[in-house]
Amino acid sequence: MSEAPSTASVCYRHPDRETMLRCSRCDRPICTSCMNDAVVGHHCPDCVKEGRRSQRPARTAFGGSRAGQLGYVTTAIVAINALVMIASAVVGGPRAIAGSGFLGLLGTGTPLTDAGEVLGYATYGGEIHGVAEGEWYRLVTAMFLHYGAVHLLLNMMLVAQLGRYLEAQLGPLRFAALYLLAGFGGNVAAYVFQAPNQPSAGASTATFGLIAAVLVVNRRLLRDPGPILSLLVTNLIFTFTIPFISIAGHLGGLAIGGATVAALAYPRLPRRSLKQALGCTAILLLLIAAAVVRTQNLFT
């Protein structure tokens, strides 16, 4: 006696498996290994992939991508500063780590810090150096240089703590723009308001900007600003009481960080990204203009 042929459908991805299930979107037969639970029925793997391609990526309240939750930019900033500190110690010796400055906790200057710190106009090594002499890169490189391990550690603790929060809220690109503009702004303020031969360096310009940014972001999200206000007050006390700290750099970073995050946090749809880009560009141009005016005034 012969058996009657089976009339059951087979999975379109596994022809050896009979099934009574079908994709609720394309109606193709699928087995239990291929089915994906949906609001109504089940979807096959191909329909799930198609749905993901057509789905808009999730965005934060400020338009940033959810990739910011991974903290890649924050991690990169800490790593770059640590590597630069190692390089500074290699060329400057052990005293680049500690042994001078406030309570002996700071490191000495090294050829690397000499080449990249904020310096308006001065002579060392028998040559004239400084931003006014055309070394404009100092306004950027100074935010990645530190005078010793303690200086580095204090700044990187703030970057790690505040950076992860802000990067998750703003997204990687917006957070990177905030950090770089705050650091650059603090360095420009140091160049404009300090004596031309007074050097300064460190990520403090950027970290003060991050403190201001958390205040603005929390206000925008209607969150309690209490803890970050305490942190701000503590850092301001240190700024005005501990010697050898660039007051202009810290306050400049604070102001530019606040202005930058306001340009990122308050624009609304439509064209939010364009408005944010224009706001950041305007801040950058104003800083460049301030540095140019300072340079001209040094020679008049």
Characterize this entry briefly.
The chain has 300 residues and is mainly alpha-helical. Helix content is 55%, strand content 5%.
Strand content: under 5%
**Annotated CATH homologous superfamily of the largest domain:** Rhomboid-like
- As for the CATH topology of the largest domain, it is Rhomboid-like fold
Q: Tell me the strand order in the biggest sheet.
A: 1-2
Radius of gyration: 28 Å
| Contiguous helical run count | 10
Structure description:
With 300 residues, the chain is mainly alpha-helical. It folds into two domains: 45 residues, no CATH class; 233 residues, Rhomboid-like (Rhomboid-like fold). The chain has ten helices and six strands, in the order ββββαααββααααααα. The strands form three sheets. A two-stranded antiparallel ribbon has the order 1-2. A hairpin with a 7-residue loop joins strand 1 and strand 2. Helix 5 packs across helix 6. The longest helix has 27 residues. The N and C termini lie far apart (111 Å).
List the helices and strands and how they pair.
Elements: E1 9-10, E2 18-19, E3 36-37, E4 42-43, H1 45-54, H2 72-92, H3 111-116, E5 122-124, E6 127-129, H4 138-141, H5 149-170, H6 172-193, H7 204-220, H8 226-241, H9 247-265, H10 272-298
Antiparallel strand pairs: 1-2, 3-4, 5-6
Helix pairs in contact: 2-5, 5-6, 5-7, 6-7, 6-9, 6-10, 7-8, 7-9, 9-10
Search tags:
2 domains, two-stranded antiparallel sheet, about 300 residues, elongated, mainly alpha, 10 helices
